[in-house]
Every structure is written in C-alpha cells, then in structure tokens.
Write a structure and sequence with these properties.
The protein is α+β, with helices and mostly antiparallel strands and 449 residues long. Helices cover 31% and strands 23% of the residues. It has a five-stranded antiparallel β-sheet with strand order 5-6-10-8-9. A four-stranded mixed β-sheet has the order 1-2-4-3. The chain has a four-stranded antiparallel β-sheet with strand order 13-14-12-15, sandwiched between helices. Helix 1 runs antiparallel to helix 3, helix 9 packs across helix 12 and helix 13 runs antiparallel to helix 14. 48% of the residues are buried. The structure holds (2R)-2-hydroxypentanedioic acid and zinc ion (ZN). (2R)-2-hydroxypentanedioic acid binds next to helix 12 and strand 18.
Length: 449
C-alpha cells in the first residue's frame, strides 16, 4: 500500500486527494454513529476517467477502495471496513432532463432533492422518495436499490433504472446510457450493479425514468389500536383507492421519540399503539372519499386529514423517526421484510422476545407497511452484543421474510446472510465478485465476510 497516496496525488493533484484527518473524519463514520472506519485518503473524482484511473492505482497498490455517496446508508456499507481509499462521488454531478422522453441522466453524486428540483421544472419527478432526500445520492440509491415510501405504486430504484455508466473492479468502463425502454442485449448491467453495494464497481452516472408530478395529494394520519387493525385498513384502502401512493406504519415508542424533538404537536388526544399514514396522489383530489372511508372503518380510532402542501405536517411524524431515534442513542437497525400476512405474528414475536430476554432494550417499530417492510430499531443494546439481532433475523427467516428489505447487507448483516440465502446462492454471488473485481479491492467487508 505504501506510495498509493503519492500515486493518487501525482495523477489527480493534491487538492483532490484529502488526507487532513479533520476533514476526512466525516467520511469515516456512518449516519447513526455505529459504524466507524479509517482511511489513507479521500478521493473526489470529477469524471469517469478519473474513477477508472483511481481504480487502476488501487489495484496496482493492492489498496481497498470504499465508495461513498451521501453517507445516509444505515448498514455501514459506505464506511470503510479496512484502511484504504474512500472514493467520494460528491463531485460527480450533472443533470440532464429529457422532458419529451421523461428520462433523466444524472451523475452518481447528484442528490435526490437536486434531481427533483430540476425534474420539477419540467413537471416531472423521480418516483422513489425517502426522508434523507437532501443527502442521499442517486449513485448510492442505485448501489443499494433504495425502496422508499412510494414503492407500492412505482416500485423501487431498480424499476426506475434505464441505464448505467460504471467502472468495474476489473477496470472496464461500462457505458449503457442510451436510456432505451427496451434493450435485451445480453446481461443487464444496470440490474446487476443495482443493489451490489459497491462490491462490483463504482457507479458514475445513471439514466432513470421520471414520472409526472402529481397535481394533488391527500394524506391521512390514522390512530389504530392493533397491528391486525392496521392491516385491515391497509387491505381495504388498497382495494378502494387507485391513487394510493404510500401506506406507512408507526408505533407508540417511535411517535414518543419524535415528540421529544419538540416540534409539532401530536394531533390526537393520546398516542395509540400504532398509527398509519396513508397518502393518495394524482390528478384529482380524493379527500372526501378518504374521509368517508375512514369514518366508516371500524378499526380507525382517530384520524386527521390534510391536502397538498399541508400534508407535510402529517408526514413530519413519519419522516422524523430516524433523526429522533438517533437522538435517543446509537440504534441497531434491522430493516426486514415479511409476507404481509405474517406481520402481526412477527410484531408479537419481537415484542415478546425483547420483554422476556432483554427488558432493558427499547423497540421502535415503523416502516413501509404497504410492502411488508418493517424497520425494527433497537435502543440500549450493548455495542458488542449481536444476540438479539440474530434472534430477530432468525424469526424473520422462519416467517419467510428477508433480513434486508431496502437498506442492503452492508457490514451490519454479513453474518446473517446465510439465514435466507443458500450456500450455492452465496457462492455464485462470490464468483461474480471474483470475476468483476479480481483483485478484491472494492468495499471489502461489505456483503460477504
Ligand atoms: C425510512 O424508511 C428509512 O425512513 C430509515 O428507511 C429507516 O431509520 C430507519 O430504520
Ligand atoms: Zn425505509
């Protein structure tokens, strides 16, 4: 590894290669504060040629290279597990909107908000949305196949992806930036790289489908006493409303933490065991139908409705969860998905397990109920104690779920991958890794042990 920083400086100039410990410290810790790392330097390339050259140097000096976008991933996938180079995509900017084709070509370092600001000028938007929109980058969203709050309607990031430019670990620059809606010419690199968590290559640009910006939005915040009741409201809403955009779940412990932030006031007298947030959006406003639906539903304990720009006030309660949890401590984040029918049993399993074996642990359950994705957050867990995580993941596997719904495996879940992936499955993924990253320098410690 000796000499790698000097080699990078010779190629890129010393201003692009950051070694100042104070400046690089922010690249070495994840958003939750749980994952930490170290680096020889942070490199900020401005184009794909520079990325290619950086990988060449990393290979030559056998130096690990971890790619980092907005650093909002929650499984440690962008925090270096091994001391090497951190390649930040933050200068890979550039947004081209084609309003006629409704597509966008964007640099990997463009944030979701930046893309939406530009797409909005043409009356369009990117269909995937998430609370970290001001920091999350499009390259990172592709690398993790981010899901977000609109998945029930539009699918996740993979479903929006039409093209990619990336430098693979073997040094090859792959360019598929035509943005065609149909293109069956061999292995689909966009799909292969989407969700690969930086282990196969460095994504430099992407092409996405865009979707028309809805003219209206109606949102309901609903208090519910049981998780079974929440599921019944959801099933009925799915059959009733064609403009359904999101069905999100919260529970009392999370709402209480958001309340501690001291912002808005909870709109109901008491905080019920669970709350749902339902959003409809599209060309016409459906607030009366929504009100009538909620009035007539037995499971609704309380409900508040808001339209258009006022809807953000209700979203506040859902979107502040991650920040509120971070305020309370360093959380364990178990992002899992389950067959929707199994959710009540799973919620019961988690609560009973914690009460029985780890009463000191605070459980915060929330997530994207509409697609079966529950974010199990655990507070007050000893740093070195992974037992509870494993038991919950084992429960997820026994209910036929997945140990990662939308955040990826990162460093957090490498030991649990075998719960839901067979040996031959993992071995085949490793063969792909060896073929595309033969020097094994990309994101070591991520995805595989
Ligand atoms: C969300 O849905 C994100 O808000 C973050 O996926 C989830 O903080 C979490 O556990
Ligand atoms: Zn989520």
């Amino acid at each position: 590894m000796a000499g790698v920083v000097e080699a990078l400086e010779r190629s890129f100039g010393s201003r692009s290669v950051i070694t100042d410990p104070e400046i690089i410290s922010r690249y070495l810790i994840d958003w939750t504060g749980r994952f930490k790392g170290d680096a020889l330097c942070v490199l900020r390339p401005v184009n794909s040629w520079q990325v290619q050259r950086a990988l060449e140097i990393a290979r030559e000096f056998h130096t690990p290279l971890t790619t980092q976008g907005g650093n909002t991933g929650l499984v440690g996938g962008a925090t270096p597990a091994v001391r090497g180079i951190v390649l930040s995509t933050e200068l890979l900017k550039g947004i081209e909107i084609d309003a006629e084709l409704q597509i966008a070509k964007v640099g990997a370092g463009v944030t979701l908000s930046e893309l939406n600001l530009k797409a909005g000028e043409a009356g369009l938007r990117f269909a995937v949305d998430l609370a970290s929109r001001d920091s999350a980058t499009m390259g990172g969203m592709v690398a993790t196949n981010a899901g977000g709050i609109h998945l029930i309607r539009y699918g996740g990031t993979r479903q929006q992806l039409l093209g990619i430019e990336a430098v693979l670990g073997n040094g090859c620059l792959i360019t598929r930036m035509e943005g065609l809606l149909k293109d069956n010419t061999g292995y689909d690199w966009p799909s292969v790289l989407c969700g690969s968590e930086g282990t196969l290559g460095v994504i430099t640009s992407v092409v996405f489908k865009l979707t028309p910006m809805p003219a209206h939005r109606s949102v309901a915040l609903i208090s519910v006493d049981t998780i079974g009741g929440a599921l019944r409201i959801m099933t009925d809403a799915k059959t009733r409303f064609s403009q359904l955009n999101a069905i999100e779940l919260m529970s009392r412990s999370g709402i209480e933490l958001v309340q501690l932030l001291g912002g808005d006031r909870w709109p109901f007298q008491a905080i019920g065991a669970f709350a749902l947030l339902v959003e409809l959006s599209g060309a016409f406003i459906e607030v009366e139908e929504l009100a009538e639906f909620l009035d007539s539903h037995d499971e609704v304990a309380d409900a508040a409705l808001a339209n258009d720009s006022r809807a953000d006030g209700l979203w506040y309660w859902r979107e502040r969860h991650t920040v509120a949890i971070n305020h309370a401590g360093i959380p364990r984040k178990l992002d899992v998905s389950l067959p929707i029918r199994a959710i009540p049993a799973f919620v019961g399993y988690v609560n009973e397990l914690v009460e029985r074996e780890h009463p000191e642990v605070k459980v915060v359950l929330f997530g994207h109920l509409g697609d079966g994705n529950i974010h199990v957050n655990l507070l007050n867990v000893d740093e070195s104690d992974d037992e509870l995580d494993h038991e919950i993941y084992a429960g997820v596997a026994s209910y036929g779920g997945s140990i990662s719904a939308e955040h990826g495996i990162g460093r957090a879940k490498v030991h649990d991958l075998t719960l839901t992936r067979s040996d031959s499955d993992i071995e085949s993924m490793k063969s792909l890794k060896r073929a595309l990253d033969p020097s094994m320098i990309l994101n070591p410690g991520v995805l595989f042990e």
